[in-house]
Write the structure tokens for this entry.
Amino acid sequence: MHAVVMDSLEEYLSGALNPAAQREIEAHLTSCDACSEEIHSMQEVSPLFLSLRPDETAVPALGFYARVADRVNERKAVPSVANVFGLGFAFGRRLIFASLLTLAVLGSYLVVRESGYAAGPSPEAVMAQQESPAFDSAPAQDNMLVTLTAYEH
Amino acid sequence: MGTLAGTLTLPTFGSKVASKTRVDYQNTPEGALVQRAQAGEEAAFREIVERYQSKVFSIIHGIVRQRNDVEDIAQQVFAKVYLSIRSFDFRSSLITWIYKITVNECFDYLRKRKVRKLVYESDLSEDEVRRVENSDPAVDRQIPADSSLAQRDYVLKLLMRVSEEERMLLMLKEVEGFSVEELAEKTGMNENTIKVKLFRARQKLVKAAQRLDRTPGLVPG
């Protein structure tokens, strides 16, 4: 919708536009099909709201305030989840904040530890070392034999 | 319709609108009344109920039209006002805030009534549903004999498809007849913001109407 229509749309729809502005919009609507179509659809919906205007004055019956007070007391008597655990709204917010802070601290600790592990040899390097002939070399086997002999004694 | 609106840029209203000073609702006699109610003074709350009960009844009656349920919804509205008065921040007038609560309660009621009806119908066999529908032709699925009732049902269906804020602004504008300037004063929003919000709300209504008109069994008034 073009600015010339949009700027005064509400006044135009409610028929409260001054004659000069009305003429300006109508001149635009005759030359712009898109605006004309859109405003026409809005004009079709607008009068339907009149059906929501009360056709008679609804007056509350005597003693309405007392019944409202009863309703308030009923609502107060129903415990909320926070009240069941004795938690006020402000306390609950502080508790949630503290939990989030703890999670953030733990999370950052874990990240730091993981990056420490990452600094060691990569899995590929360890596997390559194990598969190399030097891994099965004599000194390693000698060490194993010495250990077994020590057990026997 | 609607195709070009999406492609054109939203103009910046404002060439013609002078910005107004916001009303300081806290420093009005009504503001003092609210502050007393916020401090827990029962007499102040009672005064609020007595001052606005007729207005609340009229709003509910206009939307719901079920005389038996109007008082129940009104009680619910004022119970909510009592329980959340401390969160009232004076950005809008008190009646605007109560109006919003009232409209929301009415739509909650309509939604629950619709769900109850669907649950009830799902327990019945097809024959039983048909029998119930034939014996009670004035309920939702049928077109009400009175055209104003048909229009009311139709516009309520459209209003269920916009946000709470859009619904309230449309109701204040179209049902209560407030101008954009008055709406800005009552809601504490800028006039341009009101215009943009109303424009978007109207676009949504038109789209919802086009969708509803394609649905069989729904006839606009």
